[in-house]
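User: I want to check something. If I give you two sequences, will you return the structure for each one separately, not as a complex?

Assistant: Yes, each is folded on its own. Here is the first sequence with its structure:
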Amino acid sequence: MQVLRNAMENIGTDEEAVTRVIVTRAEKDLKEIKDVYYKRNSVDLEHVVAKETSGDYKKFLLTLMGLDD
């Protein structure tokens, strides 16, 4: 979870780090990651991803996270 927070916390998102964490996790693991992220940061991971990314990359990540338009 610290990797995700660090990747999106500063100016400019570390897209490589975000992609690596989200793409390499199974659906079950990703749910646990989202739950832990919320407990530690009091904000949904999906919300942060949506805020810190844009365009096709944003759509790609949110789709992998189980969100549809």
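And separately, the second sequence with its own structure:
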Amino acid sequence: MAITRYSDGITVNWHEGTWQVIDEGEYAGERVFLLEDEEYGPEVNNVIVNNHGDVIVEDFIGTLQEGLDLL
């Protein structure tokens, strides 16, 4: 399943629960998405994935750009 700006109910490998897209951008020529836990929201760390659901950055708190700056 390809992830889009409007995706929700996303499962992420090695992370519990389901996630929803809260921001999107581009990195290394591909679409990337900042995900937030659907149940706990901003109370837990965020994850950035590409449109295939592969984790790019995990376990951080901040904006999409702040997460990409960690790379």
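Because they were folded independently, the notes below concern the second chain alone. The helical segments are 64-68. The radius of gyration is 11 Å.
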